[in-house]
Write a structure and sequence with these properties.
This protein is an alpha/beta fold. The chain contains eleven helices and six strands.
Length: 224
């Protein structure tokens, strides 16, 4: 595991910021943490600071966390972002999921999730609090399918989506088996079910994966 060295926390609640800063300093060695009380101030400082990872709180005066994360992603697409919030706003969860933030952590859940999220993000993985995962599962299950190829009641399951994305990424059935620790026959059955639901060709499944923004969700799908 890599050790983070340069972290920024953007949160107008100074008590929360200092608490998180203390937690991270106890959990990681040689870490430098800068605190910002507003998204506007951080955005002005970002070109000079360029932290390795940014913790962004949603509820802030002026520019919100979601707005700040969007600005960062547009200008610095590889910047690692850990999004944090107190409450669950479904629209915000969907927006950040579509944006591809590296982690989404609820403050109300286990505080150690902040440490776990940072460790995973530094190593190139993602992290979602359990309640956020549940919302994302609902979003994936919704009828966001191009055309009328698949009706809502007959949409692919999360497991089927997993194999659709792996296929779209170029994995063979054997490689899918190795990656997911599932028998090749089981995977073929899932893909057969997908065909029965209307996505009969690889191209149709690729279009479905792209239009439903499942490609960026591969790691999330592999975790469920």
């Amino acid at each position: 595991m890599k050790n983070p060295c340069n972290i920024s926390i953007v949160d107008d609640d100074t008590c929360n910021s200092f608490e998180l800063k203390t937690l991270l300093e106890k959990s990681f060695t040689k870490v430098s943490i800068c605190l910002f009380e507003s998204g506007n101030k951080f955005w002005k400082e970002l070109p000079r600071k360029m932290p390795e990872v940014i913790f962004i709180d949603q509820q802030m005066p002026g520019i919100t966390g979601a707005e700040l994360a969007t600005l960062i992603r547009e200008k610095y697409p590889l910047q690692k972002i850990i999004f944090i919030s107190t409450a669950i706003d479904r629209e915000v969860v969907e927006a950040m999921y579509d944006l591809g933030v590296n982690a989404y952590v609820l403050k109300e859940e286990n505080r150690n999730d902040m440490v776990v999220a940072l460790r995973l993000v530094i190593d190139g993985h993602s992290f979602y609090s359990e309640k956020i995962k549940n919302v994302i599962r609902e979003i994936i299950h919704e009828n966001r399918v191009p055309g009328n190829a698949v009706v809502k009641a007959n949409a692919p399951t999360l497991t089927e989506n997993k194999y659709i994305v792996l296929e779209a990424a170029g994995y063979s059935v054997k490689e899918m088996s190795d990656k997911t620790n599932r028998a090749p026959g089981t995977i073929k059955n899932h893909l057969s079910n997908v065909k029965d639901k209307g996505l009969k060709t690889e191209r149709e499944r690729l279009v479905y994966a792209v239009n439903n923004k499942l490609i960026r969700s591969l790691e999330f799908l592999l975790s469920v």
